[in-house]
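[#protein-structures] MJ: dropping DoxX family protein here for a structure pass
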Amino acid sequence: MSRSSVAARRSAYALAGLLAAAGVTHLLNPEPYDRIVPRSLPGSPRTYTYVSGVAELALAAGLAHPRTRRAAGLAAAGFFAAVFPANVKMAVDWRMAPPARRAIAYGRLPLQVPLVLWGLKVARESRTQ
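AK: finished. structure tokens for DoxX family protein:
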């Protein structure tokens, strides 16, 4: 196995781990996530929190398996783009918060770009494995 394919597999597993951890926290401690669900969405924020947690776990599982890695990488990129409005809501809601909380909220906004790119990279690299 080449170094590049080992690195690609590790990258996919790392993204899977990140998504799995996020999914578990959404399910075990949903309250913080409920607060950042945009109010313009119909229904209960808790439903969106649970659905996103389950989606993160499903994406993690897909990334962990070579046969589904490409599709899961593309889906992860889409997922990271789709949850961006929640990060915007958090930044708006925390604009008057203490500086440390504001930094967290504002820091999440540009973080979505490398996450989207990471999902796309995993998808692209899965074709060569």
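MJ: nice. The helical segments are 3-28, 31-34, 45-64, 69-82, 84-93, 99-126.
AK: one more thing. The radius of gyration is 16 Å.
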